[in-house]
Amino acid sequence: LLDALADQGALAIERVRLVEDLDRAERAAETDRLRQALLTSMSHDLRTPLASVLGAATTLRDLDEALAPEAKRDLLATIIAESERLNRFIANLLDMTRLEAGAVAPNLAPHDIGETVGTALRRTEAMLAGHRVAIDVPADLPALRLDPVLFEQVLVNLLDNAAKYAPEGSTVTIRGWREGSLVRLQVLDEGEGLPEAEIERVFDKFYRVRKGDRVRAGTGLGLSIARGFVEAMGGALVAANRPDRPGAAFTLTLPVPAKDRDAAPEIAA
Ligand code: ADP
């Protein structure tokens, strides 16, 4: 009987090992598949704008004399816009790489939220030129321990998205408030909002709701970088749809520094 039991035990162990091997193989295949998809999407994001730049530059060189001044201006505008797109994509890739390497070491010091919001707004002025901007950030919010460079980048990414995905003439709202030991900062827009089933996926690398959307250029990296930066600063970033009207709402939460609060913070979405 003991022998039989031992045999059964050995069999069970063998079975577990087989299942584990299978799991590992499946995971490896999934990782491979993801890496492949990532490479395909990256080369597309790099080559499409590069092809436009090359095309426009070649036309300018070959047809120089034959081109009307407006045509030349259009070609130059294409070169500049596509180069900017490439630049943005590469900057995003670098941010992403730094995040994944754990090389983002936030330089945390107390900063005024209103001021940081002001700087981010100045940086997105051109993007938001066709939108109305409403700011509701009380001046008496406690200073937060944050890295202004990272924090501004987060706001810039959120504001860029609001500008891109909400129609011209609509209002982009920045709201800040204190909730006990937390401060929340929200960017709200009046666009279509996010498909309810895919809300969490917008933070995935290279994820875009409307794939191949060339009108609203993007890399699908902005939000995953934003969340990475916020988490590196000890905060949280979540997406939702506005309850009151169509539009997306991104909420950033950071703890109030210990000296300004009574209880320990609970960072939760
Ligand atoms: P992208 O470079 O594509 O804008 P992001 O990571 O910033 O990349 O966003 C991922 C996707 O989430 C976008 O492609 C878009 O489909 C969706 N999204 C982001 N912000 C908004 C918004 N304010 N309103 C609607 N959809 C949004």
Automatic annotation (TrEMBL):
Domain named Histidine kinase: residues: 41-258
Localization in the cell: Membrane
Sections of the chain in a coiled coil: none
Protein name as catalogued: histidine kinase
Span within the parent record: 639 to 907 of 907
